[in-house]
């Protein structure tokens, strides 16, 4: 694809895996309205393509995303807000693009350099964050009076807990890769330059598992975290959704196990059912 494209999607290099990269390395992948729209559309295309099973979200160059492009924000007119600054209406476009979505299929972020402000919020869309050893998270927008309007106050506390989320949100301090791993914000820490490779490896592992079961359990986790009205509601949703998987994948899977596959915790033979 042409280098000037704000978002580059690669669906051909890895079977079943979409690699989506924010492509503004000269601005540390800061997101302006056109980039927000391009990223939003790229995620929707991934969701709608049945051949694409897992998305790896990353940034071109040395940083994942430095947040909203403040040069663009400075030119915003309150009287005529852009398409990405409209009130929430279901799954519509957000300030950073796909930030109002609970994405329908697994997403892994491959993070190098800065994932700060709106970039931190984008990283929280993912199920997992593979973080390079020199990466930095933070609510750096605290210094400029730019609020979190892309799910930062919602998702961060669900991932790391309210106390740690408030520490990051109120102070705006930088959080390095090892501290992020300790608090559960990072899923893996890898050497510099290795995040995409590691994310691809994890994506391939996920693709090898029974798909309906994996996505059903994933959806139940998100329902419990963000939508359930009570413990009983969450439990009911989990049971009702999981019951539909039993005949399609659980019974055939149990039959494979009974014949000797996967004994003693082995994951060597876990091909699709």
UniProtKB/TrEMBL annotation:
It comes from the Eukaryota. Coiled coil: none annotated. This is Enoyl-CoA hydratase. InterPro entries: ClpP/crotonase-like_dom_sf, Enoyl-CoA_hydra/iso. PANTHER family: ENOYL-COA HYDRATASE, IP11341P-RELATED. NCBIfam families: PRK08259.1. Belongs to the enoyl-CoA hydratase/isomerase family.
